[in-house]
Input
Amino acid sequence: MAASIVDRLRDAALRCCQDEEIEDLKASTQDFLDMLESPLNNLELRKESSANWLAQCEQVLQEAVDLLDPSLPSGLVLCEKIGLELPKVAVKFVSLSQACQDHCLSIIEDLAENCSPREMFAAFMEALNMYTTSETLICCIPLVQGLSIVFSRLKRRQGQFFQEASIGLLALVRLAAQDEGGEEEEETPMETVQGMDGHNVFTLGQVRAAIVNDIVQLAQTVRETCDTVGGITGEKVACPGTEVPVSVMELAELLPFCGLSLLRLLTGDQIEDLIETTSDEISEQVNGKNTKKLEASKGAALAVYWTLFNNQVAEAAEVTLKSIKEVLQFSGRRGIVAALSVAASLLTGQSSRPLSSVAAKGLALVDTILELVSSLTYSFDDEEAERWLALVLRIIPTLQRLQNVVVYALNVEMRRQGYAAFKKVIQDVVPEAARLQCLQMLINDCVSPSLVSLHLILIKDEIARAWPPSPQQQKEPIRDANPLRERLHTGAFASPFISNDVLDVIGSVLRPKNGTPPDLPDQIDSVQSALNLYRFILIRESSGKTNHTGILSKEALTMARKQWLLPLREHLGGVSVGLMGEADEMSSAMALAIDNLQSVVYRCLELNEEVFAQL
Output
């Protein structure tokens, strides 16, 4: 009988390849599918001998694999003609035996690799929606794997296809997660999928794990293939508009079923665990894990953004502003830095330039976090060197992303907002003892002279704020409730901004690492700010008859004159002469700027020599 079915299957396949008329092709296609499915419906044989019945199913499915072989002209034609309807039937065999699993996956792969990816996307999604039930979850495994192949072949509008697929995929993940989170911990015999070969028993836990793993792999394929999609939540859902994307609501409701806490995602506690869970320790490289971490952080940031700015999502995620603030208070600076890192992941796309629509949400989230923590107080232990050194390394990437907004954002308002957030992070989150080192590291790696200038101005403000009070001021009653200011007032805390470390920062601008004068006129902004900072400290120390920074020592005055000011004066003279030979408007404006800078250099030299003469 099995041979008869095989012969009839071959006959139906031949007619499918030959028929051109729509009605004829429809009839021959249905005959092929009926012949393929007929062993499954042979209940009489199954009752008489399950072994013979299974052998017949495997034989017919193996014949289908041979007939669909894309290396043969007839096989390729058959794939194209019956591909839309075949997946729904082929996956019915997947739970019978290991051989049936292999044959079924082979059919799905042949269809995904050789038929139109758009048509197979529709066919796989139709079948996926049909089998997204607790009883037929196992049938979805080869379909998700087929979708991964399809997405890798799509050349256009990948983001749109992924959005269309997300509803079905989210429903599938939800079903798997809900089943897995059931009250019963031990699986009963009813919770297994028994292979008819007697050697292949699948627990529903294994099926659910395979579903989740395959969808994770599908998401990775989409991330690698699509320029506009950034993971399951992805940047695509962060489109402009006030309405919440459906996928965001679905994901917010899904988080608890996946054992994920939005609050723990915000502070980064669960992101590392997720990366380790979805990474192959042998084949996954460090860069791959870092990319996964960035994408996971973006997804977490978007989930938090919608939670904070939409009541529907907040209710679905069971999160309030109060609960977020409590978590940040409990986690201290480390948790706040981690939360800012997650939020700042939205500030960059695939280049250093911020994506305007997504960066706006990232900035809003950063601002909200900073507002929530503005009233928090920190333990003085956070000021200790062994604690803040690691914190500085964690906060630097966030500050660099905010820098990118200041430099590359498309509009002035976003640049202003980015710099305001940068200042708040420096002044409200980074410990006092770590701020100068943090700014020094940023200055060393910064390619924008204008941004270096802003950092130097910020250092000047910090110096003015931290400057020790005069003896008369120390006798006055303390009216500042800030305990750190009280420590500064009493002289119990030595700020790095009131030390010779500040001179090192100035020197890194006026005399770069290569020992040559700065590149002018390109770095004119940073050089002028460095000179103004030097002059500010020199005047403050000499007028107050103090030397907190060491700037008034003979060695420091001599070094500044010989290594900074005199070489810079000579260099400016040469640049000025060169600009005089050019008659265009831009050169004239630059020559004026160089003249102004020269006047600042001369004033610094005069002050330096006056102070030196008084020693």
